[in-house]
Automatic annotation (TrEMBL):
It comes from the Bacteria. This is YeeE/YedE family protein. The keyword Transmembrane helix applies. The chain crosses the membrane at residues 21-39, 59-78, 103-125, 131-152. Keywords: Membrane, Transmembrane, Transmembrane helix. It comes from Deinococcus aluminii.
């Protein structure tokens, strides 16, 4: 760490607390932007989700497809570029485990919950921020499900 001039205690590099605060602020701003995008694209709309599950509209399939394509491109770029994190560590993408059963069962569980609640876990906080208070029930059960998975994880097949 280098000091600035002759002023004791003044450093040119940010402290750990300042670095953490700027990182959290960046996450907050990205999350806020993502929430606005979810609302404006109607990805958080119960009606759009129901249209998708009834195969009445391409809107959500297009959104999900573009998200999958973006994720594939980003993952490929991360694997090839040798990009580094804010801490200077190389970002690695761990390959998925082989087998299909866990992914099918997880996808079915997620899909059933999504169909029953009318929302996937991503926009729960976005919808709460938009003043849709019944999402508190969905949030409570999402947290309960996460807790139960953590409590039963050792007994579940992986």
């Amino acid at each position: 760490m280098t000091t600035s001039g002759n002023i004791p205690g003044v450093h040119s590099e940010p402290t750990s607390a300042a670095r953490t605060a700027t990182g959290l602020l960046a996450y907050l701003l990205v999350g806020l932007y993502f929430g606005v995008v979810l609302v404006k694209s109607e990805a958080a709309s119960w009606y759009r989700i129901q249209e998708m599950f009834r195969f009445e509209s391409f809107h959500m399939f297009g959104l999900i497809g573009s998200a999958v394509l973006t994720g594939m491109i980003t993952t490929a770029l991360l694997r090839r570029s040798g990009a580094k994190s804010r801490d200077g560590q190389t970002i690695t993408v761990t390959p998925k485990e082989k087998g299909w059963r866990r992914y099918v069962l997880g996808g079915l569980t997620f899909g059933v919950g999504w169909g029953l609640a009318g929302v996937c876990p991503g926009p729960i906080f976005t919808l709460l921020g938009a003043g849709i208070w019944p999402m508190l029930v969905v949030l409570a059960f999402a947290l309960l499900g996460t807790y139960l998975y953590g409590a039963l994880r050792d007994r579940l097949p992986h």
